[in-house]
Design a protein that fits this description.
225 residues; alpha+beta; Immunoglobulin-like; 11 strands; elongated
Length: 225
């Protein structure tokens, strides 16, 4: 009974279904294999219930689509790896340099000015930057006047209104200006020094370890100074 029910090797070879032992290790089905199997199916289909031409065309289209999507996915994975390597290389060159990032807390060091900027979505008139101490007291007002859209830089050397020198330490900043005749609070940027960089896990990208602000994403950097 076994000899009747079990197809012999030559029969399987004639049908295009027999594979050498080394081929069994490779489980991937290529497009050529798919067409060969489809041709075999056509030769051995039930003549009373033949498959429609549209069925074959649909199968071929689906196979080509899956194959194409796999190639696109592999290309995107390769591109993502290249971009991540490029970002890591760019970030590593920032170590020891100052960057401009969103924030409102900065530090004044002895012999070094405190620098920052205001990010403007549109032109602003009567732009002022206020610097406050830890108690929230205004210690310095910097008048930047009229500025176009973009990034308006400011610098504070620590001098106060009474010609006294402010103590080194942490200070907060805010900015106000007139936009189309209305007084508005504006987004501030601070300068911080990059101490190290790291590659984030789980697609988080490259992060920067900063001297004052803790950590920030590479995408947060507005300027490298």
């Amino acid at each position: 009974m076994d000899s009747v029910n079990k197809p012999s090797a030559p029969v399987l070879e004639n049908l295009g279904l027999a594979k050498p032992k080394e081929a069994l290790k490779e489980q991937k089905l290529g497009q050529a294999d798919f067409i060969k199997l489809m041709t075999t199916q056509m030769n051995h289909q039930d003549p009373m219930k033949p498959m429609e031409n549209g069925d074959f065309l649909s199968d071929m289209a689906q196979f080509s689509t899956v194959s194409g999507l796999k190639e696109i996915k592999e290309s995107f994975n390769s591109l993502a790896t290249s971009l991540k390597s490029s970002q890591a290389l760019q970030a590593s060159s920032m170590v020891g340099r100052d960057v401009l990032i969103p924030g409102s807390m900065s530090s004044l060091y002895e012999g070094s000015p405190m620098r920052g900027a205001v990010e403007l979505a549109s032109s602003v008139s009567d732009l002022k930057v206020n610097i406050l101490d830890n108690a929230g007291r205004l210690v310095k007002e910097i008048d930047l006047g009229n500025k176009p859209a973009g990034i308006a830089h400011f610098s504070w050397d620590g001098m106060l209104a009474n010609d006294q020198k402010a103590s080194a330490g942490n200070y907060s900043v805010n900015a106000v200006g007139s936009v189309e005749g209305r007084s508005e609070s504006l987004s501030t940027l601070i300068t911080d020094k990059v101490q190290s960089v790291s590659l984030g896990l789980g697609g988080k990208g490259v992060s920067l370890s900063l001297a004052n602000a803790g950590s920030a994403s590479l995408a947060d950097v507005k300027e490298i100074l």
